[in-house]
Amino acid sequence: MIMTEVCGLRTRCLHLLLRSSSCRHGRQFATTTTCSIPVPNKKDKIIVISGPTGTGKTRLALELAKRLNGEIVSADSVQVYRGLDVGSAKPTASERKEVRHHLVDILHPSEDYSVGQFYEDARQATQDILKSGRVPIVTGGTGLYLRWFIYGKPDVPKASPEVALEVYSELAELERNKDWDAAVQLVVKAGDSQAQFLAANDWYRLRRSLEIIKTSGSPPSAFQVPYKSFKDQCDTRLTDSSHDVNSSGDIPNQVKLKDLDYEFICFFLSSPRLDLYRSIDYRCEDMLAESNGVLTEAKWLLDEGLLPNSNSATRAIGYRQAMEYLLRCREDGGRTSAGEFYAFLSEFQKASRNFAKRQMTWFRNEHIYHWLDASKPLV
Asked: What InterPro entries is this protein classified in (predicted)?
């Protein structure tokens, strides 16, 4: 069964896979066990692997894909962009040749990519993989991408061309003047109190919020999502309490897996916070030490006419900080100092650690995931 194929997962994980791969669910990942009783309404299985950067998601996904005749669907909001390789820890060319990857290198960095687009693209890729008789393995750390992929996207109305033009006109001057705070207050006054929590300069989502309000009279948060269990999770208050990776693998009863259209087998790789943060700091240093690393890729973004924090690609951690650092160097005639460089490195590392912390907080409330301690010896 699948547990004999999952190289590197701990014993506890293997028992969980045993449970989810029992013959009553139909499709098997391997042929060592058969089910003699025909079962109606069989669901195809999809493996989902997530976790903070540096915990081994890519390595595990590749190993599973090779052993299970699978293909990988990237759920990473930066790996979709061509040219952003080092900063997104994109799989190498040889890895992508060995195992087919979907949703990698599909856009130029000047283009925005939304969670709705990801949902459509990832679901189509999944169907194509299943039709070819292979196993879909979805991997990445973008929590909202994975939430929509598993539970479906909310039934939010689409704005008419007239409404979209009206919203664009209202926000255009504020965007040109880079008056983000005033734009947020405009949308808050229009009816979306949650707009104040958007990432700074996320003009796409701010416009989308105003479009929804003008189309429906309600903010985005008012709309129902496909499954009740998903709505329950959306309403759960996120906390920053500690999480014991040794005791968090069980799935709570309130998640109604029977409502989902596939059988999702989901894992979140984790490690003790201090170890994780140390690994992230080293990883950031490595990304800058490479001859064609993050700084080279950030320079290319600037040469393409993009500014930091101006769209999806240039808001990405690492690229935004590197672009801002390079702009400061250019303003100073191409000169910099060791102190300025280390300040940039420290900012890059801090942003990466904070993102990992937010990922851990997010996935504590995604009860479909089995938590695995990736720092312990593999068995």
From this structure: Dimethylallyltransferase (IPR039657), IPT (IPR018022), P-loop_NTPase (IPR027417)
